[in-house]
Design a protein that fits this description.
The protein has about 220 residues and is of the alpha/beta class. The chain is built from 10 helices and 8 strands. The N and C termini lie close together (about 10 Å).
């Protein structure tokens, strides 16, 4: 079984609901610091505040790009990425253009990812995670989306925004790990509600978890 500290170090604590206030973001950052998570993932307009709150604590600021539907134009996503990095984001969770993917316009999906990756790489070591919304995809489509993300230069593939029609599943994660797990990180996100489920995804090969119930899940960790 994974220790509490090990699990915490893989968590991107999500603070993305549309009705969150500045006080809620401050509280999310406090929780992130107290729990020792990898990052606190906030909305783009909250990056400056989160960066101020997390400075010097070893917890990164992550944010979302093209969230939650992924249908923004590539140049809009690129600008959003550039501004987020300037505001203090160290990691970018971008939503794949699912509609164009289903339309078979893989070239646009690839250009979309590359546009964000280009901004990240120009800034140095900023990480890009591509959200593929696995709940909409067949097994073959999951593998295809992962390959496009890899070709686009992204660092991670991620299951879900948490705002679509379904959560992460072990079945989707297994396909993602098999497709690109040797060369990219895999992040399970959406619907993870227990410590056992979190550990299960880590056992499968995930190296990041997207959680909003971080404190409750970590409190269920076994006592040494």
């Amino acid at each position: 079984m994974w220790t509490r500290e090990q699990v915490a170090g893989t968590i991107d604590h999500a603070a993305l609901k549309p009705n969150l206030t500045d006080a809620d973001i401050v509280a999310a950052c406090r929780l992130g610091k107290n729990c020792g998570v990898a990052s606190v993932c906030v909305r783009p307009s909250d990056v400056v505040l989160a960066a101020e709150q997390l400075a010097g604590f070893g917890v990164l600021v992550s944010t979302v790009i093209g969230f939650p539907h992924g249908s923004n134009r590539p140049d809009v996503k690129a600008l959003e990425a550039k501004l987020a990095i300037a505001d203090g984001a160290a990691e970018l969770d971008m939503v794949m253009n699912v509609g164009k993917f289903f339309s078979g316009d893989y070239d646009l999906v690839l250009r979309d990812i590359r546009a964000v990756v280009a901004e990240a790489k120009a800034a140095g070591d900023v990480i890009v995670k591509v959200i593929i919304e696995s709940c909409y995809l067949s097994p073959a489509h999951i593998a295809k989306a992962c390959q496009i993300a890899l070709a686009g230069g992204a660092d991670f593939v991620k299951t879900s925004t948490g705002f679509a029609d379904g959560p992460a599943t072990p079945e989707a994660v297994a396909i993602m790990v098999q497709a690109v797990g040797d060369t990219m990180g895999v992040k399970a996100s959406g619907g993870i509600r227990s410590y056992e489920a979190a550990c299960g995804y880590l056992d499968q090969g995930c190296t990041r978890l997207g959680l909003s119930s971080t404190e409750e899940i970590l409190q269920a960790a076994p006592v040494k």
